[in-house]
TrEMBL record, chain A:
<feature type="domain" description="Spore germination protein N-terminal">
    <location>
        <begin position="24"/>
        <end position="193"/>
    </location>
</feature>
<dbReference type="InterPro" id="IPR008844">
    <property type="entry name" value="Spore_GerAC-like"/>
</dbReference>
<keyword id="KW-0309">Germination</keyword>
<protein>
    <submittedName>
        <fullName>Spore germination protein YfkR</fullName>
    </submittedName>
</protein>
<keyword id="KW-0564">Palmitate</keyword>
<dbReference type="GO" id="GO:0009847">
    <property type="term" value="P:spore germination"/>
</dbReference>
<dbReference type="InterPro" id="IPR046953">
    <property type="entry name" value="Spore_GerAC-like_C"/>
</dbReference>
TrEMBL record, chain B:
<keyword id="KW-0472">Membrane</keyword>
<keyword id="KW-0812">Transmembrane</keyword>
<keyword id="KW-1133">Transmembrane helix</keyword>
<protein>
    <submittedName>
        <fullName>Uncharacterized protein</fullName>
    </submittedName>
</protein>
<feature type="transmembrane region" description="Helical">
    <location>
        <begin position="18"/>
        <end position="37"/>
    </location>
</feature>
Automatic annotation (TrEMBL), chain C:
<dbReference type="GO" id="GO:0009847">
    <property type="term" value="P:spore germination"/>
</dbReference>
<keyword id="KW-0813">Transport</keyword>
<feature type="transmembrane region" description="Helical">
    <location>
        <begin position="111"/>
        <end position="129"/>
    </location>
</feature>
<keyword id="KW-1133">Transmembrane helix</keyword>
<keyword id="KW-0309">Germination</keyword>
<feature type="transmembrane region" description="Helical">
    <location>
        <begin position="270"/>
        <end position="289"/>
    </location>
</feature>
<protein>
    <submittedName>
        <fullName>Spore germination protein KB</fullName>
    </submittedName>
</protein>
């Protein structure tokens, strides 16, 4: 009898220990940060802007749709460091900020040019932060971008993340960025985010006139910010940035358009959607001259043809393939040239390939001086393209039309 | 000198790494006396395990 | 006396040897060649473990602790024997300090560490009262679960698309120097020298002859496990981040993110580690108590449980004020500390030689 009483008492006491933990935080006490924007303001201070989801625990009718306005709130504060600013924002909100669902971190240009290591430090050490938030840079102030309303998803951070995941342009998560920062022979990049009007495709940031009509603006990835170590040194446009994806084998799908001259001096265009692409880079060192051989193999489908070439004959397809190969090679060469001459920074990772394939020579000669040696490398590009399908029709409509006109 | 009372603590182990071994040796010798003492009065069935 | 079966010994020692190495890792200094360092340590370590098993083989019926007075004579052997429970007590204090640093940093930031450790030690005391048979049955059940969880984690990591195996090349980039620094003596001590505490469990196994084979299987398995995890961590994070991470294996779990749906599995990892640390502490304390029992010719070991647990708890709580010092002790002091080296390598080798010679001359004479 006594044993049972003791057992019962023990279970009773321990049940209380199982009900919850010491430092519990209830859901209605937290504010989920979905996007963070960091800027450098005048006197060495950092401005942190956070986009926080509005979650109200309303009783009664569930989820009266917040259709009119955004479901997010924007807060910002200035502080001496990221943590300092974070604490100051905390004073303004009745809830705990948590970063674990943070989707993106946007960095303003000034901060980017002066080195973003302080930012990455915070995001690498702090407890809740995941390494898979995307890093983005923008011309101008990052904080302005948080104000743009979402078009498809509930909040704009989610949209940007989906855009990054669609892999139209090379992107970097915080983990990727840190990896490339610390690894020898490759330099980091981030995607460049700007406000662009949803209507036309424009590669300039046009924000002043259209600011009042928020719903017509979209946040678009217009290029790539090139970093050396952790400082921004320049921007690369979208087309060149796409080839970065090809070279790193991160491409999901992509479109190439080639123009071929017609007899009557009319240019026709062919558009091909790339399905698969595989790039291999081989390095060779000969007499102090570092050479790289880039082989890229792609397969794609032809989806738009405005030339007179009939897509039915395989000879024509051969011609088209050759044209595409030349175009691909041209683009890759142009990107490599830009990276070599304009930026003088190895963002493609030639150095790290050399490291992996000829590590003796890397360690002896190049590992400290890759920055100087990089502009002198020679790169050879060969592309192979295979067109697999031509869409749902197998002959050109335009050709038919011309035939009928006769 | 107070450090020597806490030789397992990490700061002491870094400054005086020999403090812990010496403590162990001293304790070992002292405790051996305990063994010797107990072995005289202990029942002799403690020698071997089965098997 | 309690009896454990061969399979139970296998499961206990696998979990024990994977133990806390999976939390901190000892090979971070070797960068991307850490898996190679682990494999080499496994080979050497298995040989060391084999030496331990042979010692108990040559001294049938005696626990490892009793071999010292038996072979070296009471005057010399007894102090050496007494060094062992003291060492085990210290190591269990270190594991308690490991937990004290891991759990508040990762999942329970607000809870005072002494609360966490109090409950931890309460459960361990209960386990000690219950005896090792119970522990054997527990590990028999839990090891398949742990391996299953690990397998799921590995599959999820691969599905997250973060693995880049070319992070592992170039091999031996900075030469063999880094690897040897890590292998000797830290690599051998960390997982394999610590198997010494298991030596007090071996006499309780029902099939005495198979102890050697069981331990070799378990050491090889544990070593491969750790090497694979290390290689995976480098493949995901690259060399530099791996060297800088405080808890490399925990960071591995944080990298899991499958279709944005399966993410944030941190807590699973910490629970996993807690269990490993639990078993290791248990075995060390069990070894301590059993050694003391043997050396003081007591009848029951129960009277020692409480003081030993208290001392271990106290040592763990006061050992290191922060993680940095704690890890610094592991990296810098312990490899050169004469206690570890002598107890885990020098004395066993001597004991082995002496027992072997005596055994040979004994059988030759009879």
């Amino acid at each position: 009898m006594r044993k049972q009483v003791i057992l019962f008492l023990t279970i009773f006491v321990f049940m209380y220990m199982l009900t919850g933990c010491w430092s519990r935080v209830e859901l209605n006490d937290i504010a989920i940060v979905t996007a963070a924007a960091l800027d450098l303001v005048d006197d060495q201070k950092i401005q942190l802007g956070v986009q926080v989801m509005k979650t109200k625990m309303t009783k009664g009718t569930a989820g009266r749709g917040e259709s009119s306005d955004n479901t997010t709130l924007i807060f910002s504060e200035q502080g001496d460091s990221v943590m300092d600013a974070y604490r100051k924002i905390q004073k303004k909100i009745p809830r705990n900020l948590i970063f674990s669902h943070n989707r993106i971190v946007i960095i303003g240009e000034k901060l980017a040019r002066s080195g973003i290591t302080p930012v990455i430090e915070f995001f690498s050490r702090y407890r809740d932060v995941r390494g898979n938030s995307y890093l983005l840079t923008t011309k101008g102030k990052a904080f302005d971008l948080l104000n743009v309303g979402p078009n498809f998803e509930k909040f704009s951070a989610e949209e940007i993340r989906e855009e990054q995941k669609a892999r139209v342009i090379d992107s970097a998560t915080i983990r990727d960025f840190t990896y490339r920062l610390l690894e020898e022979g490759i330099e980091p990049i981030t995607s460049q985010l700007q406000m662009i009007p949803a209507g036309e495709k424009s590669t300039e940031d046009s924000n002043s006139e259209k600011k009042n009509k928020n719903n017509e603006l979209a946040l678009g990835l217009v290029g790539v910010g090139v970093y050396r170590k952790d400082r921004l040194i320049g921007w690369m446009n979208a087309q060149d940035a796409e080839t970065l994806l090809w070279l790193r084998n991160k491409m999901k799908d992509s479109v190439i358009t080639v123009m071929i001259p017609d007899e009557n001096k009319l240019f026709g265009k062919l558009s091909v959607q790339l399905m698969k692409s595989k790039a291999t880079i081989k390095s060779k060192v000969e007499n102090e001259q570092v050479q790289f051989q880039v082989n890229i193999e792609m397969t794609g489908d032809l989806y738009e043809n405005t030339t007179k070439l009939s897509t039915n004959s395989s000879n024509n397809l051969h011609t088209v393939q050759q044209l595409l190969e030349e175009e691909v090679e041209r683009r890759i060469r142009s990107t490599v040239q830009k990276s070599k001459n304009k930026f003088k920074t190895d963002i493609i990772g030639f150095g790290s390939k050399l490291h992996r394939q000829n590590n003796k020579e890397w360690n002896e000669k190049y590992s400290d001086r890759w920055d100087e040696k990089f502009p002198e490398i020679k790169v050879d590009v060969t592309a192979h393209f295979k067109i697999i399908g031509t869409g749902r029709i197998n002959d050109s409509l335009i050709w038919e039309e011309k035939e009928m006109k006769k | 000198m107070r450090d020597y009372i806490w030789p397992w603590q990490s700061n002491v182990m870094m400054k005086h790494p020999w403090a812990l071994p010496i403590l162990f040796l001293i304790l070992a010798v002292i405790l051996s006396f305990v063994t010797w003492f107990r072995s005289k009065h202990a029942p002799q069935g403690q020698g071997q395990e089965q098997q | 006396m309690e009896i454990i079966s061969r399979h139970q010994l296998l499961t206990i020692s696998i979990i024990y040897q994977i133990g806390t190495t999976i939390i901190f890792g000892f090979a971070s200094g070797a960068g991307r060649d850490s898996w190679l360092a682990v494999l080499i340590s496994t080979c050497l370590g298995t040989a060391v473990v084999w030496i331990y098993t042979r010692i108990t083989h040559f001294n049938p019926g005696l626990t490892y602790i009793e071999c010292y007075p038996a072979q070296f004579g009471k005057l010399l052997g007894t102090p050496i024997a007494w060094l062992h429970p003291l060492l085990f007590l210290y190591i269990s204090g270190r594991i308690v300090a490991d937990i004290k640093n891991l759990v508040p940093t990762t999942i329970l930031p607000g809870t005072p560490p002494w609360v966490i450790l109090l409950f931890f030690m309460l459960v361990i005391s209960y386990g000690l009262f219950a005896g090792i048979e119970v522990m054997g049955k527990l590990t028999e059940i839990i090891l398949p679960i742990i391996l299953l969880i690990y397998l799921i984690e590995v599959i999820l990591i691969f599905s997250s698309g973060v693995v880049h195996f070319d992070n592992l090349s170039p091999l031996l980039d900075k030469g063999w120097g880094r690897i040897w620094e890590v292998v000797w003596p830290l690599g051998i001590i960390q997982s394999f020298g610590e198997s010494l505490a298991l030596a007090l469990v071996w006499t309780l196994m029902n099939e005495r002859k198979r102890v050697g084979r069981t331990m070799i299987i378990s050491s090889l398995f544990a070593g491969l496990f750790i090497a694979f995890t290390d290689a995976l961590a480098v493949a995901v994070y690259g060399e530099e981040i791996f060297k800088r991470a405080t808890y490399p294996m925990y960071a591995l779990i944080q990298a899991i993110s499958v279709s944005d749906f399966i993410t944030q599995l941190d807590a699973t990892g910490v629970i996993y580690f807690c269990f490993m640390a639990f078993l290791k502490t248990y075995i060390y304390l069990f070894a301590t108590i059993r050694s003391i029992q043997k050396l003081t010719y007591s009848n029951s070991s129960r009277v020692f449980i409480f003081p030993v647990v208290l001392i271990a708890l106290f040592m763990g709580l006061t050992m290191a004020p922060n993680v940095v010092e704690h890890i610094a002790v592991v990296q810098k002091v312990i490899p050169y500390n004469p206690i570890y080296l002598s107890l885990m390598i020098v004395f066993p080798v001597l004991l082995f030689l002496v027992s072997w010679i005596r055994n040979k001359s004994g059988t030759a004479a009879s």
